[in-house]
UniProtKB/TrEMBL annotation:
Its EC number is 1.-.-.-. Keywords: Oxidoreductase. GO terms for molecular function: oxidoreductase activity. This is NADP-dependent oxidoreductase.
Length: 334
């Protein structure tokens, strides 16, 4: 099959197209012919070697972290799916590789595709929808009437997190550029901060939760907008020891990872709030929770651009250069 592989950790040139053997299908696996896959910042971080400490992939490996497609074979123990099913998934962290024609995925990580979506729309969702669910529902336990700040509201994660937070009954603030103010309002944002004109930390106060997808100075300033006991949950800041433990890293790696976030956690405590890092997990069950919300129109995908499969490297470069105006970038195989 055709696939785009990371030949060595590095920049754009490290990803090359090539022919690789078709995946082997385990007893609990479904073999999926991929119709579309989307590009995530995670792909760039993996390609560039920024996550080698906690995700030590051995090169060469196929890149790509979410997909939509059709089941073409099932393992002997598979009970949830049959050949011909249209599905979507975020493969487990040890089995990435969606920039390819085929992939074998454990049945627990797969769900039936929302009936109302195209393959391209469905492929844009798994990673960001699961991240939104795990931040808002699992980690933050967001309640009706609470206030949440979601940074980068027009991004792939932000567009979905805003909609889920509104469904959960929260008051939602977000940051975005002038060009995307109307978009984030249509997604449900109650308070919109134009980051080119306003400093969010001087406008927002007494928030319960911040979802940080930017890290750096934005993360540091986010502590100021929370009420005592509030939570900053980041997917872009320094990881903490809990992440190393969740990923099965040894004790030394856990200590090294924990040290990376020491200053951030100490700064959070000085504000009377908490900081944690979330590395999202694959979950077919959570996708099945999300699917009815998608089919009911409570959550709708936002797709910026669709590239043909042969231009996967260009799609990665497009995302890396920050050229996406809103939502996700997708590659289509058909």
């Amino acid at each position: 099959m055709k696939a785009f592989m990371v030949e060595s950790y590095g920049g754009e040139a490290s990803v090359q197209a090539g022919e690789v053997p078709d995946p082997r299908v385990g007893v609990d696996d479904v073999l999926i012919r991929i119709h579309a896959a989307s590009v995530n910042p995670l792909d760039l971080m993996i390609r560039n070697g920024k996550l080698k400490t906690i995700l030590p992939y051995r090169v060469p490996f196929i890149l790509g972290n979410d997909l939509a497609g059709v089941v073409v074979e099932v393992g002997a123990a598979v009970t949830r799916f049959a050949v011909g099913d249209e599905v979507y998934a975020r493969p487990g962290k040890d089995r990435i590789g969606t920039f390819a024609e085929l992939i074998a995925v454990h049945q627990d990580d797969v769900a039936i595709k929302p009936a109302t979506l195209t393959m391209e729309e469905a492929a844009s969702l798994p990673l960001v929808a699961l991240t939104s669910w795990q931040v808002l529902v699992e980690r933050a336990q967001l309640q009706p009437g609470q206030k949440i700040l979601i940074h980068a509201g027009s991004g792939g994660l932000g567009t979905i997190a805003i909609q889920l937070a509104k469904h959960l009954g929260a008051t939602v603030a977000t940051t975005t550029s002038t060009a995307n103010i109307d978009l984030v309002k249509t997604l449900g944002a109650d308070v919109v901060i134009d980051y080119k004109k306003q400093a969010f930390e001087t406008v927002l106060h007494d928030y319960d939760v911040v979802l940080d997808s930017l890290g750096g100075e934005t993360l540091t300033k986010s502590f100021q907008v929370l009420k005592p006991g509030g939570k900053v949950i980041s997917v872009a800041g320094p990881p903490d020891a809990a992440v190393g433990k969740e990923l099965g890293s040894n004790l030394i790696i856990q200590l090294v990872v924990s040290a990376l976030s020491f200053q951030t956690r100490r700064r959070a405590r000085s504000h009377g709030v908490s900081y944690s890092f979330l590395f999202m997990k694959a979950s077919g069950n959570q996708l099945r929770e999300l699917t009815p919300l998608i089919d009911a129109g409570k959550i709708r995908p936002v797709v910026d651009t669709v590239f043909p499969f042969r231009e996967t490297r260009q799609a990665l470069a497009y995302v890396e250069a920050g050229r996406a105006k809103a939502g996700k970038v997708v590659v289509t195989m058909t």
